[in-house]
Amino acid sequence: MTQAAPKQDHVLIFDTTLRDGEQSPGATMSHGEKLEIAALLDEMGVDIIEAGFPIASEGDFQAVSEIAKNSRNSVICGLSRANLNDIDRCWEAVKHAARPRIHTFIGTSPLHRDITALDQDAMVARIHDTVSHARNLCEDVQWSPMDATRTERDYLCRVVEAAIKAGATTINIPDTVGYTYPRESAELIAMLLERVPGADEIIFATHCHNDLGMATANSLAAVEAGARQIECTINGLGERAGNTALEEVVMALRVRNDILPYRTGIDTTKIMGISRMVAAVSGFPVQFNKAVVGKNAFAHESGIHQDGMLKNKETFEIMRPEDIGLAATNLVMGKHSGRAALRAKLSELGYELGDNQLKDVFVRFKALADRKKEVYDDDLIALMAEASLNDEDAYLQVRKLRVVCGTDGPQEAELTLSIGGVEKFIDATGDGPVDATFNAVKMLFEHEARLELYQVHAVTEGTDAQATVSVRLAQDGIVFTGQSSDTDTVVASAKAYVNALNRMVLHRHRGNLSALMSSAS
Ligand code: KIV
Ligand code: ZN
C-alpha cells in the first residue's frame, strides 16, 4: 500500500477534557469549573475544545453555550448522537461561538450495529441524513464512526465516504476501547486516505483510549500516516484507563521533532497550570510518575542522577521543567511575604490571578502561613486547588468543626454544615476523630453512598505539613471523588468528604451520560 502524502505539518489539538474526560465516573465538574478550564484551554492554544454533550442535560447545554460565548480563538465543538434532535440541540449551544463545530457520531462496528438494530445500508442512510442536516446548520462538521478500529475495513471506507459526501469536514477515527496497536493505527489512516474518494479534502483525526497504555503511541502513529488532528485530554482524563494525554503528545511532537516533523500551536508553558487545575476539579490526582506532569517527572533522587544533573542537565533531562511551566526554583514563602510576592510566585506556578481572586487567595495564604512556618510551592498548589474546589456556591459547606479526642471512649465531633444555604449543627461520636466527623456529616446530610477510599498524604515534610485527603464514595455503581488540604487532617477529611458529596448532588441534577452514549437515537 502506498502511503498518502500528509497535507501539512500542522497537527490540530482537539481537547475533550470537558466531554470525554468529564464522562469519566466521578469526574463531574461544576459549571464554573468547566468555564475556567475552557478559558485556560483557549489561552494555551488548543485548536478545538469539545465543550460537552448539549443534549445530555440542561447543565451541559448551559456550559457549552457559555463556553461558546466566551471563546476567543478556539473552535468550540459540541457532541451529538446521530439524530436530528441531538444535532439541533448541539447547534443551539455552539452557535454562539465565533467558530462553532458540530460533532456527530454513530457506532459502526458489528457490535454497535446490533445495539442500534441498523443494518449496513440503513446506517449509511442515517449517516447521510444526519451529517447533511448538521452541515446545513454549521460549516464545520466532524463525524465519528465509534469503535472504528473494530469495524470491518470495507464498511469503514463506505461509511467514511458517505459522511464526506454528506459534508463532513473532519473525520475522526476513534479507538473507542483502546484496542488498536501503533502499526495498525497508522495503517488504518493510510488505508482511508488511499481508498476513500474525497479523503484528501478533509482532515482525519485520531481519538485513542488508553486501555492497553498505547494511546499516545497510537495517536502519533496515526499522525505519521496522515492524521492531522489529535483528540486528547489533560492528564489523560477519561473513562476507564482514559484518553490520550494532551501533554504527552504535545511534548513528544516537540521533543522528537527530529523524527516527528509536525508542530502544534500549544504554549507548552501552560501545561503544568492546567494539569493541576484539572486534577483538582476532577478529583483525579495525577500519579507521581505520570509522564510530563507527574510530581516525580523532573525529580532526580539518586546520587548518580543528581551528580550528572549538576554537571550537565541534559544528562538526565530530555525537556526542561520550564518548558511545561514548572518553576525551576522552590522559593519558600512565609507570613512576611506580601501580595506582590504571592502574585509573582503563583504566576511562576502557572496561576494568573485577577485582583479580586488574588485578594481572596492572599487571605487564605496568610491563614496558612500563620499555621505553617514555611510555605512551599506544593503548599500553594494545594491552596489553589482548595480555593477552586470549595467554591462559595457549593451545596454543602463545612462551617465549623471541633473534635474532642481522648485515649478512652469514643471520639466526638461537633459539626456545623451549611446545606443549601441553611446552617445545621450536630454532635456525633465515632471510632476515632475522622469516623466521628464522617458520622456527623452522614447524620446532617443523609445518603446511601458507601465510602470506598480514604487516603491521606502530606503535601510537604514536617509536623506542620498540610495533609491532602482524598475520599471516594460510590452509589449505584457511580463513583464520586473529593479532595481537600489543610494543616489539620480532620478538617481536610471533612472537607474532602463534603466535596465528594457535592459532586454527587451535582450528578443527580444531570442525566446519565453513559446511557445516552450507548443509545444511537
Ligand atoms: O471513544 C469514542 O468513540 C468517542 C466518540 C464519541 C468520538 O468518544
Ligand atoms: Zn472517546
Would you spell out the secondary-structure blueprint of this structure?
Blueprint: E1 12-15, H1 17-21, H2 31-43, E2 48-52, H3 58-70, E3 75-81, H4 84-94, E4 100-107, H5 110-116, H6 120-137, E5 141-146, H7 153-165, E6 170-175, H8 182-195, E7 203-208, H9 215-225, E8 229-232, H10 246-255, H11 271-282, H12 303-311, H13 339-348, H14 355-371, H15 377-389, E9 396-404, E10 411-419, E11 422-430, H16 433-444, E12 450-458, E13 467-475, E14 478-486, H17 489-508, H18 513-518
Parallel strand pairs: 1-2, 1-8, 2-3, 3-4, 4-5, 5-6, 6-7, 7-8
Antiparallel strand pairs: 9-10, 10-11, 12-13, 13-14
Helix pairs in contact: 2-3, 2-11, 3-4, 4-6, 6-7, 7-8, 8-9, 11-15, 16-17
The chain binds 3-methyl-2-oxobutanoic acid (KIV) and zinc ion (ZN).
3-methyl-2-oxobutanoic acid (KIV) is lined by residues 20, 105, 144, 146, 172, 174, 176, 207, 209.
